[in-house]
From TrEMBL:
Protein name: Glycosyltransferase
Single GO MF descriptor: hexosyltransferase activity
The entry's keywords: Glycosyltransferase, Transferase
Gene3D superfamilies: Spore Coat Polysaccharide Biosynthesis Protein SpsA, Chain A
Organism in which the protein naturally occurs: Phocaeicola plebeius
Alphabetized SUPFAM superfamilies for the sequence: Nucleotide-diphospho-sugar transferases (SSF53448)
Length: 333
């Protein structure tokens, strides 16, 4: 018998998209799907539309779970995961679509490779390349070190979608989405790679990403963005600190240093000098017991420049870091 797949869709004010999204699930060639709709208390007709569609079909089983208040997409995904009956879960955004053979091909790959995670490619009609593309040419990673390297080398899209995942793997490793922030994708995907032993890749566009200008990413306030990225950075650090066996892994260092640079570059680009001055004082706390925080020649040059900031007097750190971000920004233009 085919293994059950739970497709989890968080729903919040997407009445113009939800019908096509659900229909793309109903059109799947795979025949053992459970659809979980999580109502995150929107104010439009998304849920009545979903109910009407699902009540008038007999192809798949479904659940509609209701939040009492709006909790955000991360909480909705977590709610769906805890209620999933499938052996595998797949997170589908409510404004996106699945290609009809998506689940079938991902499950076949999972059966063939026994991977905890199977990733596919995605496409979009928009120029926006959200989350990055699938860049790795091999079919499978078979060690934890390779899985960590895949994140360091940005070989895959960090978004939750495009991934078929064993539910037991997520629950056994306590991998849930951090609630109350945006940009939750990166720390969640980092946790996947820290715990995975086998990740398989399917080089086919099986997911259609639709850029939604009304999404939370488009309406975020500056302070919320900064706060979310700071929380994400601390998730990275905390995950590393509790694993002494990976402290000397250069890929882990590159992952963490990249997050540091992303965080401070974001503050710089948002034009908030006062916040940059305040947050740069925290730089020396973003460190773990790794030899690579010294100026090792093995690490990329730009990271070597950032390493120097750890050895400067605090009073000079602001000017130094702001300058290297400024120069990098000018170089990229």
């Amino acid at each position: 018998m085919n293994k059950k797949v739970s497709i989890i869709i968080p729903v919040y004010n997407v009445e113009q998209y939800i019908e096509s999204c659900i229909n793309s699930v109903l059109q799947q060639t795979y025949n053992n799907i459970e659809l979980i709709i999580v109502d995150d208390k929107g104010k439009d007709n998304s849920i009545p539309i979903a109910q009407t569609i699902l009540e008038n079909q007999n192809r798949i089983s479904y659940k509609i779970l209701n939040h009492k208040t709006n909790k955000g997409v991360s909480a909705a995904r977590n709610t769906g995961l805890l209620e999933a009956a499938g052996e595998y879960v797949f997170f589908l955004d409510s404004d996106d679509l699945l290609i009809p053979t998506c689940i079938e091909k991902l499950v076949n790959k999972a059966n063939e490779t026994n991977a905890e995670i199977v990733m596919c490619k995605h496409h979009s009609d928009e120029s926006n390349n959200y989350g990055g593309q699938l860049l790795f040419s091999k079919e499978i990673l078979t060690t934890n070190a390779e899985c960590i390297k895949s994140f360091a080398m940005s070989w895959f899209n960090v978004a939750p979608w495009c991934k078929l995942i064993k539910k037991e793997f997520l629950l056994d490793n306590n991998i849930f989405f951090k609630e109350g922030i945006i940009n939750e994708d990166a720390p969640w995907s980092f946790q996947l790679c820290l715990n995975a032993q086998r990740i398989a890749f399917l080089q086919e566009d099986l997911y259609y990403y639709r850029y939604n200008s009304n999404s939370i990413m488009s309406k975020s306030k500056k302070q919320y963005v900064i706060q979310s990225n700071e929380i994400a950075l601390n998730i990275f650090l905390n995950e590393i600190i509790k694993r002494p066996e990976i402290w000397e892994n250069i890929d882990v260092y590159i992952i963490f240093m990249r997050q540091i640079i992303i965080f401070y570059t974001l503050i710089y680009k948002l034009g908030n000098i006062k916040t940059f001055f305040k947050k740069i004082k925290l730089l020396k706390t973003y460190k773990y017991n790794s030899p690579y925080f010294k100026n090792y020649h093995q690490i990329p040059l730009y990271y070597q420049l950032w390493n120097k900031a750890y050895h400067l007097p605090t009073i000079l750190t602001f000017t130094y870091c702001y300058t290297i971000i400024l120069l990098q920004d000018l170089k990229s233009k």
